[in-house]
Amino acid sequence: MPPEAPGQRAIELPSLLDPEPALSAVALPPLFGGDPLPAPAARALPEAPPTPTFAFAPEPVPAPLPPPAPVAAPAPPPVVPAPPPPPPVPVPMPAPSPLSFLDEAPAATGRRHRQPPSILHDGVLKLMLDVSDVLIYFDGARTPTGIQRVQMGIVRRAMAEAAPSGTQLSLACYDPAALCWRPVDAQGFTALCALAATGSDAQEPGWLAARDALRGQVAAAPPIAFPAGAVLVNLGNSWGLAEYFRALQDMQRRYGLRYIPFLHDCVPLIVPEHCRATMVQDYARWFGAMGLHAHGLLANSENTLRDVRQQLATILPGMELPGEVVRLDADPRELATPAEAGNLEALRVLRHGESFALFVATIESRKNHLLVFSAWLQLLRQHGAARVPRLICVGKPGWHAEAALNLLRNAPELQRHIVLLPHVSDQELDALYARCAFTVYNSHYEGWGLPITEALAHGKVVVTPRHSALTEAGGEAALYFTPQSLPDLQQVLERVIFDLPFRQAQEAIVREKGRPRSWSAVKDQVLTAVARMAEEGEYPLEERAQLRLGQHYVTRRAMRNQPDLSAALADAAREGAGWHRLEEWGVWSREGSASLRLPLPEAAIGAPLRLYLEVRPPFEACSVSLRCAAAGITLSLVELPMAPGADRTFMLDLPALPELAPLELDFDSGAAVEATGVAGQAECRIGLGLRGFMLCRLDDHAARLAFLELQSFLPAAQ
Fold it and tell me: Is the alpha carbon torsion for 257, 258, 263, 269 positive or negative?
């Protein structure tokens, strides 16, 4: 087969549900004069089976709009070779900014080296602490859970004490609507955190007024223009924040911003059966993007850091980000606000002089309340209600906890001996720790185990399973049982309950070996670690991963349970604010311009390329201009006709590139069309809908055939 000459053609492959031959894309004249580019030759492929499937994206895809009634497809016209393209037209391009892996040519696969550290602005390290997670949590709740409690502890000490020499601290909150960060008033934030600790009523007027005032102040603040060399430190969760990494990538490109997240666990990847499906998918998607954009890692335990590195190695082998373990062994009493016992509602469930056990955890399957409830039931039946203390469970209802709650509901003995307290303030929790006889903390898997630290800080014996990071949190001070072993748990509980000298001896061990450190010490370690990572060289983002020629990339909201590099790369290819949020089918562009930047591997040099674009037309007819460029040279300028109906695939041949540079695709949808109920918005304007793309060498017939088979055939059932 003779080689095909690259030409200026963008051929639309017909939809498998569209009975009419595809229309050819129309080439536009050059941007800066000269002879018009030749119109591309049109070619319609034969009609194919009625349902397309995608080998690289096995998740269900919403069906396209219904096609018109089938008619006989006319025979395809003969292929007319396109005239030779004119010489590429140089187009002035803005100089690329540093720190985006799409800015520069990717290195050869596996090449990893560090670049010198960036220069600090005015010799001062600017650290921005991202408190988005806490503020979003406060939108619907008041009593913090473990991760929010950690952030509040670190931030409150950081804002109350002098910053290290040469360091400037400030707070920021992510705005998903504007894809930017806005400043947060430190005094207002710390005051709100202090107020959260004094009560549990999320509808209390004073709480609502303080929360809404701070929220309004943040919303009215201008976007942050990050200073050169600034570092964004996210101490909490960001995997539920829409388009977080697309906004971060823009800040990295514009300001050279560095990003260091604090990872509290990899639970959704390690024990996904104990998480909601959406949580697993969100976390997996976040984790893949984090590997492309982070400049360092903070972790709460050696176990968590080990899990993170193992998961990163599956998608980015050979790259190891700098990391530090910051143990969360801080004294919770340091941040507690004193309160009169008579004003604490939770204490009213206690009987005078009662000895009770305490279990602090969200009621969900991962915490395995079922095992603890079963052990309590055995104790009651073997030793009698008079000898067994009541179990006070502090925690909100979570997910997959039906088995434990059903046991509690169906066992009268347990109903009299187990008390559930879903809404407990920090003040009340401190009082419960001080009054309990001992504590139990069970879980299938943990990144740390903050209730263990809290119990040890109060001098209380802790009974917990021996696994994951619980042994780091408990150290030599906790009492351990074999994980998921009811007999072993019951045996340890019997000794703690009925052998008072043993319990007193264990309490002495707790006082000696379970002493916590201050939140100031935790804060200092975080700031020192971040400053050190900022001074180190980095793995340039453009070297972390590359597009693979011949691979099908899907630009939709990934629904996978494990991190996926191809999904992360496809998402990172969307550049700027010209795109709506990802949806399960793909993504709509906004009115005006929307861009893709595709980092090309070395195999792309010196050979003509073929680009396939899988698109979804909007609900009204329109036309989208497409400009392809690389290294400041316009390679192609064509018009993509968009008519309502089935999804379409456009094919574009590109000339050989003389040097390695990212391929830039700029789509211009003009005023676009009005739409309702798409992209999570009541009303908006949409242009081209992008479902995926594939780029290969023009002479790679195997990749081209595989892509066409992907469009045309159903895979055999496995």
Answer: positive
SS3 of 403, please? helix
Going along the chain from its start, the domains and CATH numbers come out as 120-330 (3.40.50), 336-516 (3.40.50.2000), 546-712 (2.60.120.260)
Which amino acid is located at 19 in the chain?
P
Question: How far is C-alpha 238 from the geometric centre of its chain's CA atoms?
Answer: 6
Closest CA to 83 of 3, 4, 8: 8
**What is the model's pLDDT at position 341?**
64
Are the beta carbons of 301 and 452 closer than 8 angstroms? no
How do strand 258-263 and strand 297-299 relate by DSSP bridges? parallel
Give the tokens for residue 291. Answer: 């590997």
405, two tokens: 């709650």
d(CA 655, CA 660): 13
Which two tokens mark 508? 């002495």
CB 711 within 8 A of CB 13: yes
Query: Is 323:315 a contact under the CB 8 Å cutoff?
Result: no
DSSP code string of 566-599:
HHHHHHHHEETTSB----SS-EEB-SSEEEEEEP
Hey, what are 570's tokens?
A: 């496809």
And the tokens for 492? 């340890």
Beta-ladder partners of 588: 689
Which residues face 613 on adjacent strands?
650, 693
Q: How far is CA 121 from the centre of its chain?
A: 29
- Average per-residue pLDDT for the chain: 84
Residue 13, pLDDT score: 55
Chain segment 303-351, per-residue pLDDT in tens: 999 999 999 999 999 888 999 999 999 999 988 777 766 678 889 999 9
Supply the Cα-derived Rg of the chain in whole angstroms.
30
| pLDDT tens-digit map of 433-442 | 999 999 999 9
Alpha carbons within 13 angstroms on the beta-carbon side of residue 292 total 29
Question: CB 122: neighbour CB atoms within 10 A?
Answer: 11
Q: How far from 199 is each of 5, 427, 699, CA to CA, in Å? A: 73, 7, 68
User: Is the C-alpha dihedral spanning 616, 618, 620, 622 positive or negative?
Assistant: negative
Q: Confidence band (pLDDT; 50, 70, 90) for 100?
A: very low
The DSSP symbol for 103 reads T
CA 31 distance to own-chain centroid: 40
